[in-house]
Design brief:
Elements lengths: L2 H16 L5 H10 L8 E6 L4 H14 L4 E4 L11 E3 L2 E2 L2 H17 L6 H16 L3 E5 L16 E4 L7 H4 L3 H8 L9 E3 L4 H13 L4 E2 L5 E4 L4 E5 L2 E6 L6 H16 L8 H10 L7 E5 L2 E4 L5 H15 L4 E5 L7 H8 L5 E4 L10 H8 L5 E3 L3 H12 L4 E5 L2 H9 L18
Parallel strand pairs: 1-5, 1-6, 2-5, 6-7, 7-8, 13-17, 14-15, 14-17, 15-16
Antiparallel strand pairs: 2-3, 3-4, 9-10, 10-11, 12-13
Length: 433
């Protein structure tokens, strides 16, 4: 067994043994023992139920186009663990991952600091970014915000993209509770940009920002967004027309507007000119999000993993499919509200093949397939490759295959050699080392 595999085994054993345990003190102490690497560069912090990864990718691309050396920390990965920790669009190499993991492991063991899987990766990211000399880190929240391991940074600005029901067992059952948890990343005096968030969640975030003296920037008040195929943005020092976004979907224009607003909020510390902004947004890549990986049959993969994400996906299908029937390949994590996801997706599909990924977290294929029954015929096939072959045969060369329900499913298909894009996980299409 090589060093890389041993490192993966150790990390994933932590995930199985410790699960999720939210305490910022452990991460802060580990970073302190490592010299507080997160203080060596500036940072932007991105939270939200959906869209936070896309906004992080867009900020990475725009700042990179402006000439900054950018680190990006996101989750989950699709194929290689190093995709989560990227510098200048290039995922962390296996060699660097092994060396950094060993360094963090040695320090935490020496001081009796027991970190979870995600906490270890977060510390590794901050150490790696300092070591390779990034100028700015774009950091995506893993879950929630208030007690997320990433919330040890003091960012120039934060963004909260959307508020929806997801991870309710940790974040609360109401949108107000979820907003309060995500609003935990708001820091005193630091601007926070909101995406399309209205009603009680927006009121909660406005209250938190006011209590902490953090300028809050919201669409419709501080900046205005319009446009269908291209984006118009007015406010925060920007006067932009006909901005093209390299990611499919109307919701990506909302994400682009959030990214533009963040850049407006930090323009004094991190100036980005219009040319770089346009180049970054036009060239941004974020695999597995409304991505077309084949044309015969037309094959669309999308990491929609909650009810709101499925609703956004369904809204895009008519434009992409041209009215052709859709055959679905679906898998979902057991802790998701998959009944609602199925209810929203099933009426738009001719058939479904339900498979399983990431046991034991993945939902049982048979139970999920049964939920599709009232709206479209579905079969359970636990093996992902056999499931892929079944749905592809059902669609035929002229049909449409949709792969959805979890990014873990898309990653599994990529690992099996199905439609893996060059440089999977690289923001700007850089080849993986």
């Amino acid at each position: 067994m090589n060093d890389y595999q041993r490192t993966l085994d150790w990390l994933y054993a932590l995930e199985a043994a410790k699960g999720m345990d939210f305490k910022l003190e452990r991460v802060s102490l580990a970073l302190q023992r490592l010299g507080d690497p997160q203080s060596a560069y500036r940072a932007l912090h991105i939270a939200g139920t959906n869209g936070k990864g896309s906004v992080a990718a867009m900020l990475d691309a725009c700042l990179g186009a402006a000439g900054y050396r950018v680190g990006r920390y996101t989750s989950p990965h699709l194929v290689e663990l190093g995709e989560r920790i990227a510098v200048a669009g290039v995922p962390m190499s296996r060699e660097a991952l092994v060396a950094t993991a060993e360094e963090v492991r040695a320090v935490t063991l020496a001081h009796g600091i027991g970190l979870t899987f995600f906490e270890i990766l977060t510390v590794m990211a901050f150490v790696h970014f300092a070591r390779v000399g990034v100028e700015v880190a774009v950091v995506e929240v893993g879950l929630g915000g208030r007690l997320d391991a990433t919330n040890v940074i003091d960012p120039l600005a934060a963004a909260i993209t959307t508020i929806g029901r997801d991870h309710t067992e940790w974040l609360g059952d109401s949108l107000a509770q979820i907003a309060l948890e995500k609003g935990g990343i708001i820091k005193p005096g630091r601007p926070v940009v909101l995406g399309r968030i209205d009603g009680e969640p927006r009121a909660v975030l406005e209250r938190v920002a006011a209590e902490r003296g953090a300028p809050l920037l919201a669409p419709g008040r501080d900046y205005r967004v319009s446009g269908a195929e291209a984006l118009t943005f007015e406010g925060l020092g920007w006067h932009l027309r006909d901005v093209r976004v390299g990611l499919r979907g109307a919701y990506q224009r909302d994400n682009a507007a959030t990214a533009i607003a963040v850049l407006g909020a930090v323009r004094d510390a991190l100036p980005v000119d219009e040319v770089a902004l346009r180049r970054g947004l036009a060239n941004v890549r974020w695999p597995g999000r409304l991505e077309i990986i084949d044309t015969a049959p037309l094959t669309i993969v999308d990491g929609a993993h909650n009810a709101d994400g499925v609703a956004s996906l369904v809204a895009e299908l008519p434009r992409l499919t041209g009215g052709r029937p859709v055959d679905l390949l679906f898998a979902v994590m057991g802790d998701k509200d998959w009944d609602e996801m199925v209810a929203r997706l099933a009426p738009h599909c001719r058939s479904a093949v339900v498979t399983e990924v990431l046991p034991p977290r993945g939902a049982p294929a048979a139970a999920v397939a049964a939920a599709f029954g009232p709206a479209c015929p579905a079969v359970a096939e636990p093996d992902p490759m056999r499931a892929w072959r079944r749905v592809r045969a059902r669609a035929g060369a002229d049909g449409v295959v949709l792969v959805a329900g979890s990014l873990f499913l898309i990653g599994e298909l990529y690992r099996l050699g199905v439609g893996r894009p060059a440089g999977a996980g690289a923001t700007q299409g850089a080849a993986q080392p």
